[in-house]
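Sequence in, structure out.
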Amino acid sequence: MRSILLHVENTPAFEDRFQYALDLARHFRGHLSCFQGISMEAMVSADFAGVGTGMVLDSLREAADEHRAKVEAALGQEDVPWDWETAYGREVANLQRRAALSDVVVMGPLGWGKDGRGASPVVAELVLAVETPILFVPQGCSSFDATHPALVAWNGSREAGNALRFAVPLLREANAVYLASVEEPSKEGRVELPDTDGAAYLSRHGISSTIVELDHSDGTVAYTLVRAAKLRDCGLMVMGAYGHSRLAELLLGGVTRSMLAEPTIPLLLAH
């Protein structure tokens, strides 16, 4: 993971995500590309509210410039190569363009105008629009430790396989990798790959894993996965993102959406 794209937002959760991305870049001797979006959606909302778009644009630009100056000052004190782009327009489309030549996109739980709860619609839409994995870093996670145990949520699907492949660089140094499956009803059209296939794939990359079967009779699948990760002191969870083209809040399957709504540890997502 040498090309790391960081989604920059002026929100309370950004500082932790920023420090995590810096650790990631140092660990992989990578390049950090900072992307700051100024969304046109805010200006459309202002028009409906009777506020001039010019006033809103000036306000957004001023706030963005102040935040950029602050983050660039911090970057100047770090030993990580970086570049910066500020772009106007639809944020997901701009991120999609930058993600095409990135190894991972580091994002967080707060989108513009969000109150900190619920899955960010930007993350929800982007993860289904790109082939690049999304590393979702929650507030409170400010450092990356490659040796922490990791849990891979496995359900035999194509999406889970994609997430596992993308996660290999992050799993190589983990002192334990758990391939965890939760019994769910089989879905029509889903490719079913046994967990032993996932373990065999990891072994070819020199990664040992432990297959774990989880019972969720006393909770949801999302709760069961989070609890299993906490019990094993995991610093990363890997899972496939599921969904089809609908509104952003409805883009993700129930388990993925629940994981994004109240994240507790970094989550690598791939579709």
